[in-house]
């Protein structure tokens, strides 16, 4: 099964095409404004140096002018930007997490390899359990329940992981394509914080897939025994319950990955991935709660009837005991 890897590969291709085309088009539109800003920067800097308005030397002036020239080149030239910045950022986005996971669970360093490996083991375990459960005249209910626990836990965890990683890739593309509009802000001291915020956002989108892949690597390592048992059809209800709990725990960790990535680079702008992932998995959680509520409601009705019968019986017994005690007291006084 290579569907997940094919999806991620296709997304990466679309990201490259979108960024290259969008960057060049936006740079062409903004070129007059960028050159006007560069000209103004050179004039203001030259006048400040000649008038000695600011205490900087000729070396400082040369460094500032060189920095401004580099900024303009990066902002308006896709070839230079891709060679100096984009290729490295995209390589990190694509392979950093898979390189790290190789040291955790030994997964192949391929695009989407962690999700592919983990979800394939989940589906294999579900198929094996269902096959062994229905291989007799009387279905094995415990194995069917185990398969459902494994399937629900896997869908929650890996659904959130896929959503977070795809959100990060698309967010990376949308953020980088606006580079011609944000890079020129690095020229002026008054606007360099805007450039810094844009840079941190790009870095956050690069880090998030790596963190998500590492979480999946830990999940594969921690749940190896349970997944192996499911793959051989030997999973019992205890292991199934533990598997579901672990999947939920790692799902909760996965939901914190965007905030962790944003915190590492000093921005919260990428935290929307968790919200988007919640839109995907919350219906499944609500369905589980409804099922639990339905089962709990029936159990509560039965328990209520039993408690009511016990209460009436206890009340009747107490009333009879009270009547006997009262009669004995009256007889004792009469005697």
Could you describe the 3D structure shown?
The chain contains ten helices and no strands. The longest helix is centred in the C-terminal third of the chain and has 63 residues, at 272-334. Mean pLDDT is 78; it is low at 287-304. Helix content is 85%, strand content 0%. The chain has helices at residues 3-51, 58-76, 78-101, 113-133, 141-176, 179-182, 192-222, 224-231, 237-265, 272-334. By secondary structure, it is mainly α. The chain has two domains: 3-270, no CATH class; 283-335.
Enumerate how many helices there are, as a single number.
10
Biggest sheet features:
none
What is the CA-CA span between the terminal residues? 94 Å
Rounded to the nearest angstrom, the radius of gyration is 32 Å
Write down the secondary-structure element order: HHHHHHHHHH
The coarse silhouette is elongated
Structural class: mainly alpha
Number of domains: 2
* Oligomeric form: single chain
Give the helix proportion (percent range): over 70%
Number of strands: 0
Low-confidence stretches: 287-304
Which percent band covers the strand fraction? under 5%
Name the average pLDDT. 78
How would you sum up this structure in a few lines?
The protein has 335 residues and is mainly alpha-helical.
Describe the secondary structure blueprint for this structure.
Elements: H1 3-51, H2 58-76, H3 78-101, H4 113-133, H5 141-176, H6 179-182, H7 192-222, H8 224-231, H9 237-265, H10 272-334
Helix pairs in contact: 1-2, 1-5, 2-3, 3-7, 4-5, 4-8, 5-7, 5-9, 5-10, 7-9, 9-10
